[in-house]
Design brief:
With 158 residues, this protein is mostly beta strands. It has one helix and seven strands.
């Protein structure tokens, strides 16, 4: 058995671009940035950012395009796919590796943005429930009433 699976959690580097295939299926493409922090051999802290090309099809593409914007966090589960083509101007063969979304989850949202939830892709197994858009009739997060007293760390029992 072979496994081709990628799990990413990062921030969108640009707004998703949506287009339609000749069959009418929507396609959303965007990039996700992930960060890694480590210490080099001298003990200096280093930050490395990787950029990943992401592609979503059908209903997930529509939902991602509707709710996600540049800078928003997102969890992606998908498979890696590499495409190749000959560059017509230089005659050089070019490659592009991308992650095709199978499942995704919106990251934490700012109050009132309306995003959130987890949605399987159209290619997910048939025993999962159908994809539905998040309900819009819920109260915005800025209307939640929080207790007025401060929480003291000594009052927490653990």
């Amino acid at each position: 058995m072979y496994i081709n699976k990628a799990f990413l959690y990062g921030n969108l580097t640009r707004d998703p671009e949506v287009r339609a295939l000749p069959s009418g299926v929507k396609v959303a493409s965007f990039a996700l940035a992930t960060n890694r922090t480590y210490k080099d051999k001298d003990g200096n802290k280093k930050d490395v950012t990787e950029f990943h090309n992401i592609v979503a099809f059908a209903k997930p593409a529509e939902l991602i395009a509707q709710y996600m914007k540049k800078g928003r966090p997102m969890f992606i589960e998908g498979r890696m796919q590499t495409q190749s083509w000959d560059d017509k101007t230089t005659g050089v063969k070019k490659y592009r590796t991308e992650i095709v979304v199978e499942n995704f989850q919106f990251g934490p949202s700012t109050p009132g943005s309306g995003a959130g939830g987890s949605y399987p892709s159209a290619g997910a197994s048939s025993n999962k429930q159908s994809v539905e858009a998040p309900q819009q009739d819920k109260a915005p997060m800025d209307t939640i009433e929080y207790p007025s007293e401060d929480i003291n760390a000594e009052d927490i029992p653990f």
